[in-house]
Amino acid sequence: MNKITPPEPLRAGHDTSHFNCGQAPLNEFLQRHALDKQNAMLSRTYAVTSSARGSEGIGKGVMVVGYYTLTHAIVSQTEAPKKLARGMPSSIPVLLMARFAVDLRFQGQGLGRSLFTDAIRRTWAVMESGAAPLRFFIVDAKDEAAKAFYGRFDMIPAPENTLRLYLSYKTLRQLFGETVT
Questions:
Q1: Which residues have a catalytic role annotated?
Q2: How confident is the model at residue 55 (pLDDT cuts 50, 70, 90)?
Q3: What pTM value is reported for the model?
């Protein structure tokens, strides 16, 4: 059994070279762009690693086996679901989970659910006590299968783009309570 670390910000010492989630754009982002975007303060990528070598004997040190990337964004009131956007200003601050992937060798072990839960916990911490407020946590599902995964977390699709899904601060408050620990 491989020991998986808790999510932590991506760093240069993480081995991303053998990461393969089955989606070339997500592999490429992690391997070529995630650290640069993070260093430029455009996003933050959180990675989980395994120190064990894969079954193919590849990987050295702390091999990334899953990740997600968060960034701040703005959505217009008209693109948000009506029941969430009612009474909101024309521009609404959100936290966007821009990338999310688990290596094929580690899928089906609950790692995706764990990463997603970590992402919304971090979002709640920002919503509750961050320096600037947020109204929603959003994701852009890559396809219908990803949309079904997010649907298990009661995310609400946007009216015009049903692959963009929303969680409101009210939902996160119900999940995590009034205070962040």
A1: 150
A2: very low
A3: 0.89
